[in-house]
Amino acid sequence: MASVAKQFLRPSTVNNLTKLVRNFSVTGQNNYKVAVLGASGGIGQPMSLLLKQTPAIKQLALYDIAHTPGVAADLSHIDTAAQVSGHIGAEQLGDCLTGSDVVVIPAGVPRKPGMTRDDLFNTNASIVADLSKACAKYCPTAFICIISNPVNSTVPICCEIYKKSGVSDTSKIFGVTTLDVVRSNAFIAEAKGFDVSKVNVPVIGGHAGITIIPVISQCSPSCSFEQPALEAITERIQDAGTEVVKAKAGAGSATLSMAYAGARFAASALDALSGKDNVVECAFIQSSITAATYFSTPLLLGPNGVKKNFGLGNLSDYEKKLVDACVPELQKSIKKGEEFAANFH
Ligand SMILES: NC(=O)c1ccc[n+]([C@@H]2O[C@H](COP(=O)([O-])OP(=O)(O)OC[C@H]3O[C@@H](n4cnc5c(N)ncnc54)[C@H](O)[C@@H]3O)[C@@H](O)[C@H]2O)c1
Ligand SMILES: O=C(O)C[C@H](O)C(=O)O
């Protein structure tokens, strides 16, 4: 199989706001409705700011259980085309979602020091299940971009809730693992002295600890590390979320970098919807690539979701060992999500 790196074109979205706006000024018509669920949060607010500046968006619908009228009023004063609406509380969720083409979901609580992402499950599982049920009802054909942790369980929850709601097509439900790609690009560019805007590292697996697998052997431009350095940078990427949680010392987890990564993935979804070619992102989706029924790999996105799953590509022996260790961990998280959804009403 040809190396994914050759097929894994740098996503159409880019590494700074100006290019992001220019990128959509070229390809995006002012056509689409994007909803953000959890829009008042640490991720939701900066991500909504970035989305407000995307010409392809004609309506930006902001939903939360608190503060959304203020966030919407604030953003609506920005002189860009997207019309902003604020929606607060369950009775306004339907209006927020109806007609949405892309829904981004950062709703839920973040980690504090000493917690794992799985420790968030008891709180965030029901939040994501409720919001998934509403998406299945009001915008069943939208791209659903789940940020809320634990992603390795919340994406299966969303898919199962869709099926329970009578929506069999779950092919546009994505776990947003873009921050792992963004981090890998940044850390490797720094280590190798590369121009970071030209670095692309596929990240496969899931979004927690050892399930995060940067495929450095497929890095573009190509690079290599001695084994100790390779293990060190791999572990830094796997633990990067915890690095931020510790640095924030109880004030939460990554928000600004996630807002950037979430806006990038949403912009790629809009690119795909508009029919742009070569829209490639890694995301956590239902998958038959490994024994885990959900797995993140590089995906070619199109108007109907995934056009092509590039799979694992050629892995090094080290990366194959990482995948072997990842799969049972993923299977446990997936099962936990599916069992929750089965009992959710
Ligand atoms: N996928 C990733 O790479 C990634 C990266 C960073 C953070 N996260 C996750 O994103 C989530 C949000 O993090 P944050 O820092 O923005 O948290 P935050 O607490 O700052 O914001 C969360 C927002 O969700 C809202 N909310 C809570 N329940 C809701 C509901 N039922 N409906 C709608 N909105 C609701 C809250 O009011 C709040 O505004 C966390 O679960 C965090 O772990 C994921
Ligand atoms: O680490 C966290 O809890 C948030 C997020 O998953 C991250 O990777 O930053």
Automatic annotation (TrEMBL):
PROSITE patterns: MDH. The gene is Mdh2. The keyword Secreted does not apply. Homodimer. Its EC number is 1.1.1.37. Keywords: NAD, Oxidoreductase, Tricarboxylic acid cycle. Residues 33-175 form the Lactate/malate dehydrogenase N-terminal domain. It holds the Pfam family Ldh_1_N. The keyword Endoplasmic reticulum does not apply. One of its GO terms (cellular component) is mitochondrion. One of its GO terms (molecular function) is L-malate dehydrogenase (NAD+) activity. NAD(+) binds at G38, A39, S40, G41, G42, I43, G44, D64, N124, I147, S148, N149, M258. Belongs to the LDH/MDH superfamily. MDH type 1 family. GO terms for biological process: malate metabolic process; tricarboxylic acid cycle. It catalyses: (S)-malate + NAD(+) = oxaloacetate + NADH + H(+). It is an enzyme of class 1 (oxidoreductase). This is Malate dehydrogenase. Residues 177-340 form the Lactate/malate dehydrogenase C-terminal domain. SUPFAM superfamilies: LDH C-terminal domain-like, NAD(P)-binding Rossmann-fold domains. Gene3D superfamilies: Lactate dehydrogenase/glycoside hydrolase, family 4, C-terminal (3.90.110.10), NAD(P)-binding Rossmann-like Domain (3.40.50.720). Substrate binds at R111, R117, N149, R183. The active site is at H207 (proton acceptor).
